[in-house]
Amino acid sequence: MSDTSALLQTPLNALHLELGARMVPFAGYSMPVQYPAGLMAEHHHTRSAAGLFDVSHMGQLTLSGPDAAAAFESLMPVDVIGLGLNKQRYGLLLTDEGGIIDDLMFVNRGSDIFVIVNGACKHGDLAHIQTRIGGRCTVTPQFDRALLALQGPQAVTALARLLAGVEQLVFMTGMAATWNGADLFVTRSGYTGEDGFEISLPAASADAFARALLAQPEVKPIGLGARNSLRLEAGLCLYGNDIDTTTTPVEAALNWAMQKVRRTGGERAGGFPGAARVLAQLDGTEALTRKRVGLIALERVPVREHVELQSLDGVKIGEVTSGLLGPSADKPVAIGYVTPEFAATGSRVHAIVRGKAVPMEVAPMPFVPNRYHRG
């Protein structure tokens, strides 16, 4: 554990302490890992009602100017130019070798492109973006803004009492809103597999807005522990665990995030860092050496990150990158990388947990069905 006095604090720090949170170092911040109810209760509450997450450690920035969309598109294998007004999309910043610098979300707000990046990567991402495209558009960090996530099937009921109109949003769309004089931006998205919202707001308004949400009968505070178990059951990558600069989007099974227009034969094919390698992997002209898969343990033994994966005859074929006993799946679930011949659904492998071979089966993700509101 780091010395917590050296850690940054989010605008909700006092509220977390008041609510009895257990605080831990995360991405340079003191963050709540769980509240007195505990991880399991928080996980199930989010799946059944609505959970409030403080994700203010994340980085927010805007790209503005007439060339902003084309400039941003030059950094990612993603369709930025074709994204409609108030629509949101998942993106990937890549190295010149095709490795993943960070995964992010971005919204076309008309006047600018609003970007949310991972907390541990935000300063590096900002430098990368400014260095590469700072001459083509105005890059404005908004690292002082707060970010809240309200997730779960009753999130819309609770949020609509405070912000009229949010019920009209569908998955991966956003809208501007005001609350007590503060300018908010709300997207219908999140990282739990549930319906829900992310709300960007000024730091000075975060405490009052969070308390107003927690006053709703559906809403309880949720920590990083349940955020991790929820995203893992949803089959979603955690940057630094499941993806990093050593993994390409194709190895990471993120082909769906690369639109046809940016692929070989597309109208704006290539032109992004690492394009030659990524497109070769997409086209099958460069063979993969590993692939990200979902895994379910066939015994009730949690299999965690960095556990070695072996073939049934004892040859190393990969590694687990995220894993735990899924509270909703009610079985041990994991994400990991295996050599391509073991990537097919139903393939059997062994995880070596404390010297013991635990049988696992490659399984489709998500492990728990997604419940995004698509209208």
Structural description of this entry:
By secondary structure, the protein is an alpha+beta fold. It starts with 7 loop residues before the first strand and ends in a 12-residue tail after the last strand. Helix 2 crosses helix 7. It has eight helices and 20 strands.
Short summary:
The protein has helices spanning 13-18, 39-48, 68-73, 122-133, 155-162, 203-214, 224-233, 275-283; strands at 8-9, 22-26, 29-34, 50-54, 59-64, 88-94, 100-108, 113-117, 138-141, 146-151, 174-179, 182-187, 196-201, 219-221, 291-297, 308-310, 316-326, 331-338, 348-353, 356-363. It has 375 residues and is an alpha+beta fold.
Low-pLDDT segments, ≥5 res: none
Shape: globular
Major sheet characteristics: 6 strands, mixed
β content, as a range? Answer: 25-35%
Helicity level: 10-25%
- Summed up, the helix count is 8
Structural class per helix/strand content? alpha+beta
Order of strands across the main sheet: 11-12-13-10-4-14
Task: State Rg.
Answer: 21 Å
Tell me, rounded to a whole number, the average pLDDT.
97
Terminal CA distance reads: 44 Å
Strand elements, count: 20
Order of helices and strands: EHEEHEEHEEEHEEHEEEHEHHEEEEEE
